[in-house]
Amino acid sequence: xxxxxxxxxxxVTIIIGVICIVGSLALLYWxxxxxxxxxxxxxxxxxxxxxxxxxxxxxxxxxxGLHWLPLFVGCYVVRFPKKLYNLTxxxxxxxxxxxxxxxxxxxxxxxxxxxxxxxxxxxxxxLIKILEAEVPTDEAKLMDFVEEVVVxxxxxxxxxxxxxxxxxxxxxxxxxxxxxxxxxxxxxxxxGFERDDLKLTIKEMRLPKELQAAMPGPDKARLDLERAGxxxxxxxxETAGTVLEIMAQSRGKSVEEIQTxxxxxxxxxxxxxxxxxxxxVRRMGIDAGAYVDIRVEGGGGIDKTLLTLAAAWQRMPxxxxxxxxxxxxxxxxxxxxxxIPVEIDAEEEES
Length: 351
Hints:
Elements: H1 5-31, E1 40-44, E2 48-54, E3 57-62, E4 65-69, E5 75-81, E6 85-95, E7 99-101, E8 104-106, E9 110-119, H2 127-132, H3 139-159, H4 163-168, H5 170-181, H6 187-190, E10 198-206, H7 209-214, H8 217-251, H9 255-264, H10 266-287, H11 302-315, E11 332-337, E12 340-345, H12 346-350
Antiparallel strand pairs: 1-4, 2-3, 2-5, 6-9, 7-8, 9-10, 11-12
Helix pairs in contact: 3-5, 8-9, 8-10, 8-11, 9-10, 10-11
């Protein structure tokens, strides 16, 4: 069946008309910014936040909750976790300064350091800068991303003091390293992190064995005590962050709301301290091979209570037998204490 020229002309006219109508509607849609109308719902979960993307351009920050997106092909969200990252950088070596401290000449010495960086993504529109800088959310990749900054900060801090001063005042080293780590002109601040989102501390500092052997007994004891204090603070930070996340998820609220509730409501504070205590006790059972029930009153404030719990964990004797060590086998006998079978040495039973 042949189509007449008039039929062909009519079909072409219809096609052109449809194109013109669709094009006009598209221009009107774009000119009136109708594409910005919220039509499609999207839920950002309590442990997340997100950046809204339209046609490849980040335009807005979304916190946890229900949000609306335009019904548009190029509109979506990129999600980020709210968690506090705990990044450990073990066995890094730094050279201390050669100089005089308290009338004593110190040479440059290598110092072994285990550093710990805590960071979280900003919960505001600065998250857009984080996205544009391609900061990874995977923990292993994030460690690679910040390692140079962490190592650089510790190198600068140790390079400014002698090893004698570092051994005497670890707190000064941490303070100086953290200032470099959180520097407003530093790379992490420039990519979108805020100073309050960043924290750097030293988990352990190791002097060469020859220097440790030469140190007086009180100095070695002080160094061990300071090391335990920094480990306790590290544990307190980890515990607080974990408990706040647990309480936030269980209530469907943000961490900020839980922090406010804990500060204002004695019941919420009591629950927070109880959860923190249970978490520390369980960690003692895992790390030290022992499970000891410890009750700590919260009258001194949350920070003091967490540090007290962490310090108690540090003071606990290690329950595990170190790898590669053989225990001394003695005559053992099983007795019951309060109905519980317990093995004791034969000598103890006689006494």
